[in-house]
Amino acid sequence: MPMLTVGHRGLMSVEPENTLRSFRRAEREGLDVIELDLHLSKDGALVVMHDAEVDRTTDGTGSISDLTLSELRALDAGQGERIPVFTEVVEAVGTSLQAEIKDRAAARVLAGVIRDRAGLAERVTVISFHDDALREFRQELPDVPVGLVTQESTDTAPERARELGAGLVSCELVHLDEDVVGRCHAAGIRVISWTVNTDADLARVRELGLDGVVTDSPAIVRAVRDQAAGDAPSAG
Question: How far apart, in whole angstroms, are the C-alpha atoms of residue 224 and residue 48?
Fold first, then answer.
């Protein structure tokens, strides 16, 4: 099976992260999946941003949870882009999505959006570092796939993913080893890694036999594609 390519917050090495501009660029570059992050605004809108605060990626300050959608919309998220809501991303690109949730409240709101939109359940995998958020989501929509994201806790990823019913783990590459990958694969769980941005990173991914990469870089996407083309059997 070809290696999966996941665009990290769109394609954030070349476009402002978690913006429609970044997601459209990822789709143009041929990413298989687009990863994005979700928070709830003060008035309950499902907004797309990685941090809990707006300071790093916009010209504003403060916590997302303290700002209304209207106030968030007034901010510049880079190159004149505005902070999108999740439904705008769904409409802007046709690529499959990995939607990262931070808490149980976001899980419930996201489940409602997916439930209300025909066909969206087939496009979205819900991912999180937080087991309780994934449990909450699965209670709402048990048939929508979920994935566990890990960092220092990667060693326990196979067991946690199995308990959560997750078919995917997305682990920080530095914490992955052959044992974790083997235990995941033995349990039928796919393993991808973040963030793969260099040739050395990609070589390690191949050495470990991973199922996919999360990347910021168009060059990594091209390298994966070129490798897949080289591995394909020739005609005749």
Answer: 27
Instruction: Identify the bridge partners of residue 100 per DSSP, sorted by sequence position.
Output: 37, 127
Cα 191 from Cα 60, distance rounded (Å) = 36
pLDDT tens digit string along 2-18?
Answer: 999 999 999 999 999 99
Is the pLDDT at 36 greater than 80, yes or no?
A: yes
Q: What is the pTM of this model?
A: 0.96
Residue 226 lies in a domain: yes
The domain spanning residue 30 has which CATH number?
Answer: 3.20.20.190
Give yes or no for a contact between 86 and 20, defined as CB atoms under 8 angstroms apart: no
* Type of residue found at 189: I
State the catalytic residues: 8, 50
Number of separate domains in the chain: 1
Q: How far is CA 75 from the centre of its chain?
A: 23
